[in-house]
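Handout, page 2. Input:
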Amino acid sequence: MNTVNRQIVLGIALSITVFISMLSLFLLAYPLDSWSLLWKRKILDLPFILFAPAVSILIGVAFGFISGLFWRKQLEGVMDALSQMGQGRPFEEQQAATTQEIQTIWTHLEKAQQHLTEQTKLSQKLANERAEDQEKRIQKVVSEERNRLARELHDSVSQQLFAASMLMSAVNESETEKSEGERRQLQLVEEMIHQSQLEMRALLLHLRPVALKGKTLEEGIQELLGELVQKVPLEIKWKVESIPLQKGVEDHLFRILQESVSNTLRHAKATSLEVLCLEREGTVLLRVVDDGVGFDVEKSKTGSYGLQNMHERALELGGTLKIVSVPGKGTRLEVRIPVIREEENDD
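Output:
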């Protein structure tokens, strides 16, 4: 039974009470010699026996309906506040409650929201400290390892590819008689070696650490997607706003984006990719949409380390991550993180 119906039932009970009261007052004012007087006494041209029940029912129904609407409005406000808290957003300030019970509920909700805000600030602070500490510790190791790999690739594979390219050029330019099929095969081999050289040069040029390394989130996303446009046959569109965030929050969001884009390139077989990163109503929104083959989200949650890692990163920042994927129609990933400014921390 919903609130309005319950209040109407209470109103009916009130109607019965009002009718009994009116009947008692009538009998006290006009003692009856005969019950027929209930039909003879008229109010507004209606016999009292009809007027009293009609007025009682109208009063009860009106009371039940109005009070039901009142309580439903109060409870809807509480439900909206709980829904906003569940999404990690602060609920809007409500008007002063008209009853002590509702006021008590709002007081508890405000305390719960304050507690969640403190937990979110603490989680983001810890994430920021861990990110800064981790970046300091691994930056040197990653840089040295990157340089070592670049040197080894240049000194071994790159040199061997160059030598093979020179040999194939010499073979193709020699005056030795060859059939058309042999000549075509040798040209294909030379082209493959040349393409491998280009890819090796690109790999050597783009060897770099995964983290932002001193860049803002906006700069990191634009650089990452700008390089992808040049390297992969994929239509990529993006809209990225400049959002002042703590280092730990930026690092987590950037790694979530990298993991999502990596999954798209490896598994989605997509032809287009859209990335959106902006701030609205105190919340950072990161959205990645592709038109690939899609997948079953429920089956992949338990077996995918990448998806689990993205969920954990979003939760660590006090936010939410939602993935919607339809087989054959693409995938949509959406991350929402509450923004905690330095001024709010001071307050």
